[in-house]
Amino acid sequence: MAGNRPVKFRILELCNSGKWNYEIVAQIQKEYPGLKGNFHRDSINFDIIELASGGMLEDIETKVDEEGIYKKGFLLHKYKLTDFGKIRASDACLMYV
Amino acid sequence: MDLKALKKQEHKKRVKYGYMWALFCAVLWGMWYIPGTTVWVLNPFDEMYGEIAAGSGDGMALVIVAVLITAFNALTVILALAVWNGVLGKFGEMKRTVKEFHPCSKWFFLASIFGGPMAILGSFIAMGFIGGAFAAVAALMYPVVGSILAQKWYGEKISKRAYLGIAFIILGGITIFGGGLITEIGSGNVAWIGYLGGLMAAAGWGIEGAIAGKGLDIAEPDVGLTLRFLGENIIWWILIVPALAIAGFPMFKYALLAFEPLTLLVLIFAGITFGFCYVAWYKSFPLIGVGRGQGIGNLYGLFAVIFIFLFFGDVPAWTILLGGALCLGGSSIMFSEDTGEMESLRGD
Question: Which residues of A touch B99 (CB under 8 A)?
């Protein structure tokens, strides 16, 4: 199943129980062989921002990236699936209904 | 730097880029009316109009030529988007999205029905029959259709403020359409099809937006847009153009003649401006919210009138200017209230 559905579907799945953006990006880059490198890293992160602004993910925690796990000196966000996100995800035939 | 300052800085950066994308969209969308108006007087479309008008009358000729122009517009848009997706390395994602026909891509194909044969065809008809400024300003009414549909369909509430905006836009619409009509009724020659085209543009884009939103929020917008135009190309080149050819119209004869340098250049210009105005539009939404994105994007009406003045020297009738100003004011009232997305973007 991994790596053959649209990236945003997979992001919604991963965020079910709350996850940091760098964890999501790393997981996606591991599963999708075509999405290596910094350009795709930023573009996956933008997908997360889009889902959050669409109301499907909610930003539950923020911290500064002190050690440079993602981008040193920038903000890290932790996201969780919203109720609306759950509805849209189940429309897309993901696991939780 | 502390957390609070960083949050503020990140927010400021997003908003800046969001406004930039939305403004790009408005400029490109406004520019699209230049090739859209020019292409009507170029060959083979001019000759085609003459040939069909001689056999089937002016009204029929106009619609048939508009179909071929719209079909070419769809073709050059998808070329521009294919290059864009290629550069961004998104063909893999496109394959994954197409496969999800049931949850996702069906919405793009449905959107293309209203976006293409209704909105874009209507715009070209309005440009050909009445003029670019009218076509641009008439389509400014699309948020009214979009918000009424969203209310009926997803049960979205329309606030008092939004109703006020809608009232302004409808008033603007009456001014735009009524102004032209009264002059024409006076002279006894009414371009009904052109006005119908203007209405088709507004209704089509409103419906397209409401439908496409359902698929776009769970897909990659660059990919979603390309699929939406793929759908439109299928509608024109596989269904409508061959059907009209079978009905006896010289579709393929003139389609093959379109490969003239100047005509191609104008068509490619149309494809690039139209394709990238859509891309920029969707890029602005996550950064500043759909409401603000659409509000700024609607400045295209203003840009279209300015560009048409600069390129063709046409000053639109005062009813178009006044009506356009009312529509712009109305959409600013409607969209400026929408701060929900801004809050969630700020993350506090």
Answer: 4
